[in-house]
Amino acid sequence: MEHVSEKKFPVDPKDYKLYEEIGDGVSATVYRALCIPYNEVVAIKILDLEKCNNDLDGIRHEVKTMSLINHPNLLNAHCSFTSDMSLWVVMPYFFGGSCLHIMKYAHLEGFEEPVIATLLREVLKALVYLHGQGHIDRDVKAGNILIDANGAVKLADFGVSACMFDIGERQRSRNSFVGTPCWFITYPFSFLIAYLMLLLEWFDLYWYVEDILGSFWDLFPPSRADIWSFGITALELAHGHAPFSKHPPMKSFKEMVAACLVKDPKKRPSSEKLLKHNFFKNGRTNEYLARTILDGLAPLGERFRELKVIV
Ligand SMILES: Nc1ncnc2c1ncn2[C@@H]1O[C@H](COP(=O)(O)OP(=O)(O)OP(=O)(O)O)[C@@H](O)[C@H]1O
């Protein structure tokens, strides 16, 4: 398990110097920046809160979740704070940027299978951890798989992840705002199950019926929504875009994707089971990733600028 830095990052914009833009999303822009007191390069995501149709407390909670979660394949925020009408999320800087970005820049036909197996294996490890902690990511996609200069893979943006036990308005408001169409499918039963779990806990019955609940949970596992997105992401990485094919994929790749894209959520494998799939035996080391897909890449800001001109 990765060491969690005890370092306290400053929560004042004056302590950061913004450099160039390295990415943008629907309501946020990401910059490379310098944390002046530590003389350390970081990435800062600045969310325009006026553009987010979610409540501020909700977003704060999500960022907090992001900073509490600790796994080598999950992106940990250093800190976050609000300034005027924007939210600043300070994160480690990843030289490679996202897989989507790398593909658009240098691998238009998608990655080769050993690369895909390595990337997806690392993402799956993150999902096994998240699901084990009672979270669903809800936004697994190539744009959220980041790579650092050493080829280490991190799943980002699980700040939009939902707790499987979240209920009420909060869950409803999330449904209107999070996830990316095509990668994410709504999971209608999670709401009901969350209520049931809470009722049992209130009446102190939870532990007595844990076994029964365990099998009930197996019948309607909300985490299987991530398995669907994971399958779509596999296709995205193979062909540079989701979900059409140009090259015939390997048998084990096809089988793995087919297992994820089963319509009935309860027939999809859990993240833990999926990790044991034969396809991931093709996975290699982080160094292999760095050598294969990062070597020779221009700095992220330069790549981002070039791609923006093309778009
Ligand atoms: N810590 C980071 N280091 C390096 N690059 C990053 C970092 N965080 C984000 N990026 C880059 O910025 C891009 C935009 O990130 P962001 O999380 O805002 O958007 P997104 O998830 O791709 O989009 P959307 O808002 O549509 O979900 C990423 O795809 C990635 O290329």
Q: Find the CATH topology of the largest domain.
A: Transferase(Phosphotransferase), domain 1
Q: Order of SSEs, N→C?
A: EEEHEEEHHEEEEHHHHHHHH
Number of domains: 2
N- to C-terminal separation? 39 Å
Instruction: Give the helix proportion (percent range).
Output: 25-40%
Q: Could you name the ranges where pLDDT drops below 50 across 5 or more consecutive residues?
A: 160-179, 181-191
Query: How are the strands of the largest sheet arranged?
Result: 1-2-3-5-4
The biggest sheet, with number of strands, parallel, antiparallel or mixed sense and barrel status, is: 5 strands, antiparallel
In percent terms, what proportion of residues is strand? 15-25%
Strand elements, count:
10
What CATH first level of the largest domain would be assigned? Mainly Alpha
- Overall mean pLDDT stands at 79
Please state the structural category: alpha+beta
Radius of gyration from the CA trace?
20 Å
Question: What is the oligomeric state here?
Answer: single chain
